[in-house]
Amino acid sequence: MDKEDIFRLAKNPRFISGIYNYCDRWCERCPFTSRCLTYAMEAEDNDNPAIRDLNSEAFWNKLQSIFEQTAEMINELAEEMGIDLNSLDMESASDDISLQKAKADSHELVIAAICYGKMVNDWFESEYLSFKQKEDELNTLLKIGLDKDSLHADADSIQDAVEVIRWYQHQIEVKLKRALAQDDLFDAGKEDTILRNDADGSIKVALIGMDRSIGAWGKLREHFSEKTDSILDILLHLDRLRRRTEELFPQARSFNRPGFDTMN
Question: What is the pLDDT of residue 262?
Fold first, then answer.
């Protein structure tokens, strides 16, 4: 796909502008893939597996092509907007980015999110045998002819809960960091509406991940009632993180994500 193809796609009215900025990247479960420019661009390469193989020359040629196209578009857009790319103070910008990242990494929300990710790993590692036993139990019940639909529904429910938990396990941390790295938002007397909106958008995605994870843990608690105490520990930690995030970003829930929250 060359630059002209990208601009052609971008002008197609079927695509929702900016829908890819505040999604959870779970394309397999997204109802808006047909209206997402990023998905359409990635789909262009799906028929050529070599492009996704790091050991293939096609992969590196594609990467070089993307770099060249992106650089060309940046130059054109900068010229249109009257921006002198050579006038940027790269040393100062680099220092600012490093400071923002350090502040985000040490923020209480990020620390709590990292802790949650570790709790998830520890729980699944310690409960491996519980899942094996549940699998054996369901297979035994199937063999003796009990309600197959109900048993399959239980198995699907467990699998779905695990997939949801694992998908958002680390994404919550990533989205929180992205929002918190908008350093200008947290300096007294400095407010930027664009940055504030962008931060709220990222926080909303993190909150949605927390909501869905809490629901998924609730499902697992129903199927593994004997593990209620250990699951409740995780639920309480995640719920505290959710409440504290809402406290620090009170406008995030009302942020309208393009497509997801603006379509009837």
Answer: 77
